[in-house]
Design goal:
This protein is of the alpha/beta class and about 130 residues long. The chain has helices at about 10-20, 40-50, 55-60, 75-85, 115-125, and strands spanning about 1-5, 30, 65-70, 95-100, 105-115. The chain is globular. The mean pLDDT is about 95.
Length: about 130
Amino acid sequence: MILLNFSHPLTSEQLAQLGKLGRPGPAQVLDVKVQFDAATPYAEQIASLVSGIALSALEWQRAPILINPPALSFVAVALLAELHGRMGYFPPCLRLRPLAGSLPPQFEVAELLDLNAIREQARQRR
């Protein structure tokens, strides 16, 4: 599995938690630096960001990819649209949650969001 990390670097503990959720640890973690200019359209910046990831068109469509989305919601939703266009489906996403009482703030892997399954379930509620 390839983990595309569009957020803060993940700790070894967070990567190990994937195994507890029924997923093996990723074979490859690609940290993608996300820094956006608010004065420039996000769609252009997202396309450029994703084009800079060293994956072929075939890998985008066939490789098992998991994403840790960026925290900024506008960037995250535009990123999901771009990824769906390249992959043909919504990739699963990590959801992190804060650990209560931790200083400095620490986060753990809470769940994997299967966006494709969520989409299919929603289609039945049309």
